[in-house]
Amino acid sequence: MKFARVYTIAFLALLAVPALYAQESHVQRRYVKDTKLTVVTSDALYVINMPTQFMALQLRGRYPDQNQPPKQMPDKISLEFSSYTAQPLYRNDESHRLAVKADEEVLDFGLMSYVALQENGKDTYARDKTSALALRAPIPPDALVRTTHPGKGLTLETMSATNVPLSQITKMANAHQVLMKIGNTVFALTATQMSILREFASSITPANVESLAAARTPTDAATAVPSSVPSDSNNASLDATLRWLKKELPQNSSLKGAGVPARFEAVDFSGCKIKYRMYPALPTVPGGNSRLTYGINEYQLNLADLNPESVRDTGLKDFSMIFFETRDHEPKIKQVVSANDEGHAGRPLDEKQNSSGSFTLSNAEAASQIRAAFVHAIKLCQAQP
Question: Do the strands 185-188 and 262-268 form a parallel or antiparallel pair, or are they unpaired?
């Protein structure tokens, strides 16, 4: 692992402002009653400020109950990066892998999740100009990339390393120097940023962390994958895996979640080129003209085009989700929006090519099992001539 090129970011203009890093806490804790979890978030760390790029890092974690210090191990930790440039830098898979050098030890965080958004209005970003969803993500006024490219729309690339073990955060916090490498970009954390990292680590670490870590089983019982589920461990055939997915995806789909609730239909799972449809559970747009209905979305993709490393599951309060991405984020997932003809797919209304997709599922156990089978199917399809 080469860490030859290091950007030691002074960021003098911002660090000179007393309000930026004063002596108060730089880690926020918020207890969420609905989920009975404490969410811990650090201030944004400005790790790169150059005329060609601005990048911020934020640390996030959560643990059960609201004790401080926590009495249980954190169930989720993530490192979240936001990069602003004139042109995208990290689209290819090899370009958004994260490695961290903590003193002399190199920690491999693997492939990070990745989303690229284009500026569509001041500090507002969307996938494209036709997207109905937009994210407001302002950057500091002293960010050099903004002043270097006045009036020019920037690209926002967000990357996340999720499910980070507490042990890796501890190694980083205990180090004298931390270097981070994303693709060809290398930078060092400053002394102030190291202090915030240590405060974050302290906020999510139980006092009896050694005994809790020793008591943990290798596989969490809630997400253990039974031997009956097609997966890499039992080397199930492609046909058996696809038949299992065709049955389990509709049975475990959820109408909860973000966006319009939709029912899953497995149209074609007979081979590596699969097809499925999402039927809106709401017949018409609430509050709108009664003739205005939600369209039916059909997705067509070749499993061999997906990156198995990109398949991730995440559990939320009332549902879980599986996310997946194509290799090098090539737009190879075809989405066809059809008219809703009384619950049937009518004439095509729109067509687009995507680089990512998702399934909304009823619970974490189902998501874990479907993820294992889905990853196995992708690998089998990629192994085919």
Answer: unpaired
